[in-house]
Amino acid sequence: MIRSKILWLVFVACSGKLADAPASDEIVRLSRDDSQWVMAAKNYANTRFSGLDQINTDNVKRLRVAWTFSTGVLNGHEAAPLVIKDTMYVVTPWPNILYALDLKQAGAIKWVYRPNPSRAAQGVACCDVVNRGAAYAEGKIFFNTLDNHTVAVDATTGKEVWKTKLGEIARGETMTMAPIVVKNKVLVGNSGGEMGVRGWITALDTRSGRILWRAYSTGPDEDVLIGPDFKPPYVSGQNLGATTWPSEKAWQIGGGTVWGWISYDPEADLIYYGTSNAGPWNAVQRPGENKWTSSVFARDPDTGMARWAYQWNPHDLYDYDGVNENVLLDLNIDGQDRKVLVHADRNGYMYVLDRLTGEIISAEPFVYTNTVKRVDLKTGQPELNEAKSPQLGKFVKDICPAPPGGKDWQPMAYSPRTGHLYVPHNNLCFDMKTMEVGYIAGTPYIGAEVAMKPGPGGNRGFFTAWDPVRNQKVWEIKEDFPAWSGALATAGDVVFYGTMDRWFKAVDAKTGQELWKFRTGSGVIGQPVTYRGPDDKQYVAVLAGVGGWAGAVVAGQLDTRVPYGALGFVGATKDLPEVTGEGGTLYVFALPEESP
Ligand SMILES: O=C(O)c1cc(C(=O)O)c2c(n1)C(=O)C(=O)c1cc(C(=O)O)[nH]c1-2
Ligand SMILES: [Ca+2]
């Protein structure tokens, strides 16, 4: 009797686990299947590496357009197309249209889903009305709309399965990030670090859209989901969050939004993601470390509880959002096998962290920086250069990197074949003047005037190959403009990325030699992907269509649909349309048929 009760309990416990497991297992399996592309970053580790090798360093020069598709939408096209079986899914910037394209018929439209997001959301998006893509699981496509909804759409029929509202435009919130699905949960976060928004990450039930948990980046431990298991490497004690701000009001409007990338280690069962800049930019108004803005969190995906956190930029002075991707790698460093997380921060440093504990293994600059002199590996503290501290009412000149950072959201790739990271990034400096700013809900909360300029050498961007074991540069390619697209690495040892001046490029993964390039219709800031089509050929797909904050960097305050002016971007150089055309087009490339 007792025995059967125990068996029954074991059965219940296991079936509970089983009911929870499928989505992650399915996703791990699908993300290893190189014929498909099921989440923006390709896999939970965020490597953007595909094992396909039909396109290689010898034949890539023959790459041709197979088909194209016009989205009919202006603004920054940043999304990664998804490929599930014979269908490609493309999300556009506002109005966030989801297209399903038939790969058996050169991209014929299968269906179109229009969520009709509120027009008002356009006015509060800091950095253009962008969207970074969708995620697939359990027969559904999940993505965010600019007006703060997460939607689930049936991947076969295009019918809406559920739609959940998560934030408020009136408070300055928007959503631009690409979700990931972990264990029957869709994980999403908000934008608005320039608008006096309080940042959060939220888990929704994939089946119902019900909110399961929400963790704030700022405020008391119970809101940040910090409990007894929280073991940050460089700080002790709890209730750190609220006490590192001058007042309760300050952390309620202090930023720390979650608009970047989320990665997941199924073995450790931890998710990793970063939080945005502290607000306002004028740091005089928020004395203290401003935890947990510009930080990285490791959390339990079931409960949301934080395991550890590390603050890249305590008391952020320069709008250094900490949201850039955390690439999860297993590396042998100094003879030891380490489970690491690699992160190229806006502050210009490449960090290699132990992803189980949060300890820093190394931190080295990947671009010219004069704001952070070094990162102390014992204390975790960045040592700041006081000569570049912002001053109230007075321009401080030539601060590097500029607010978009040594690198912004544009994600790097990693090839296990070369052991190199491929990093699209910026080379920007700026002058900054700070001023007192009042908080008005739903309006920019900045308190700074900035003028951007190219960094040393006069070029505004680089595409850099980086060795994460030695934590040093391998080679770099100079770009006139910030390299603001994602990177894609393949087993053909070809690496792809796009440029603002309308080139989509293929380079040799080992040497950086340019192998092929193609002029697209507009600047490329999308994330390239690759897949095996129904005809067994390898295809490479990317969205062109310039915008995003890179658009502002190039164009200054031209576009009145987004409050660049309010953000104080002065020093416009050239008109955006004079540099690079506008409008979204999907390009799909393949090798031509062998001629007999
Ligand atoms: O603090 C925030 O909430 C927030 C949101 C976003 C966004 O959602 O696009 C950007 C930024 N900050 C930001 O600082 C930034 O440099 C940036 C660039 C871009 C882009 O799409 O090119 N978005 C954003
Ligand atoms: Ca920001």
From TrEMBL:
Coiled coil: none annotated. CDD domains: PQQ_MDH (cd10278). Gene3D superfamilies: Quinoprotein alcohol dehydrogenase-like superfamily. Keywords: Metal-binding, Oxidoreductase, PQQ. GO terms for molecular function: oxidoreductase activity. InterPro entries: PQQ_b-propeller_rpt (IPR018391), PQQ_MeOH/EtOH_DH (IPR017512), PQQ_rpt_dom (IPR002372), Quinoprotein_ADH-like_sf (IPR011047). Transmembrane segments: none annotated. The keyword Coiled coil does not apply. Its cofactor is pyrroloquinoline quinone. Its EC number is 1.1.99.-. Residues 37-362, 476-540 form the Pyrrolo-quinoline quinone repeat domain. It comes from the Bacteria. Belongs to the bacterial PQQ dehydrogenase family. This is Dehydrogenase XoxF. It comes from Methylocaldum szegediense.
